[in-house]
Design brief:
By secondary structure, the protein is α+β, with helices and mostly antiparallel strands. It has one domain: 3-Layer(aba) Sandwich (Beta-lactamase). It is built from 12 helices and 6 strands. A 6-stranded antiparallel β-sheet has the order 2-1-6-5-4-3, sandwiched between helices. Strand 5 and strand 6 form a beta hairpin. Helix 1 packs antiparallel against helix 12 and helix 3 packs across helix 4. The N and C termini lie close together (10 Å).
Length: 290
């Protein structure tokens, strides 16, 4: 699998994508059962522990954290929370994400703060990171999930929190992202009911008509576009001017599930609608032959 992954990256780089190997991180896992248990797969990876800006893939972490908070009765169950969760994942809404981050951390955006007010705000905003560190999963080492996502950019205390050199930006690795997604999809984390709810909002339609009706479908230009007809997909994509990412769990007809997380960096990759589908398609073809 490792040799195939390297060969595929070389091929795609030679097709007119200079620097692809240095700007792509991948975690690829295949499973031997239709309903696998956590950590039961085999895989290959590339730059898999490198911490990168995740764009909207961080919303996957926030969704899982929300279910964890609800399970512990740390936040109240409400239809508005459910609506925000659905919109954050299915439509990748930044507004909904802002509400979820406020709810998880007990903070709000606003003007700059000083003194004790600022110190308390910073401590509260780090609650998601504190929860991640307490899981003691080695794949999550160095994760930073404390920032909202923006259409324009942060202002006031939110801008201050990024720090002057943006050193406090969100950061994930493909391995850690894969560990979180795998735990959800195999019911290895939280209650089965909570995992079921997360799967429902992560599910993506591969129907061509539905995709055309929704240009922001998180399938076209991402891993889902490389899957054959009849496949099933659960995913969360991320896209910005310098990044195109996707974290996906999928099954193709007659095959066992596969987990694929791809982070690509740089303006050339962010505008490449064919790269992620090509990686997914190449790995699927290899697995079907093996």
């Amino acid at each position: 699998m490792h040799a195939q992954l390297g060969s595929l990256l070389d091929q795609l780089e030679q097709e007119g994508r200079p620097g692809l190997r240095n700007n792509t991180a991948i975690t690829w896992i295949t499973y031997e059962k239709q309903n696998p248990s956590s950590k039961s797969g085999s895989g290959a990876s590339w730059l898999n522990d490198k911490l990168l800006y995740p764009a909207s893939v961080v919303k996957l972490i926030y969704a899982v954290a929300t279910e964890a908070w609800l399970q512990k009765d740390l936040i109240p169950e409400s239809e508005e929370t459910r609506r925000a969760l659905r919109t954050m994942i299915q439509e990748s809404s930044n507004d909904a994400t802002g509400l979820i981050v406020d709810l998880l951390t007990g903070t709000t955006s606003g003007p700059s703060l000083i003194g004790d007010g600022w110190d308390k705000w910073v401590t509260q905003r780090q609650l998601i990171n504190k929860w991640l560190s307490e899981l003691n999963w080695p794949e999550l080492k160095g994760f930073n999930c404390c920032q909202k996502t923006w259409e324009d950019g942060p202002y006031g205390r939110e801008r201050d929190f990024y720090e002057s050199d943006n050193s406090n930006r969100n950061a994930l690795s493909t391995d850690g992202t894969a560990r979180i997604l795998e735990a959800v999809m195999t019911n290895a984390f939280l209650s089965p009911r909570a995992c079921k709810r997360l799967k429902e909002i992560l599910s993506r339609s591969l129907d061509i008509k539905q995709r055309k009706e929704n240009p922001l479908n998180q399938v076209d230009g991402f891993i889902g576009a490389g899957l054959p007809k009849g496949s099933q997909l659960w995913s969360k994509a991320g896209l910005m001017s310098t990044a195109r990412h996707d974290a996906a769990w999928f099954s193709t007809p007659g095959s066992n599930p596969m987990l694929l997380v791809i982070f690509t960096m740089g303006r050339e990759r962010s505008t490449d609608n064919f790269l992620l589908p090509a990686i997914a398609n190449g790995l699927i073809k290899f697995k079907n032959k093996s």
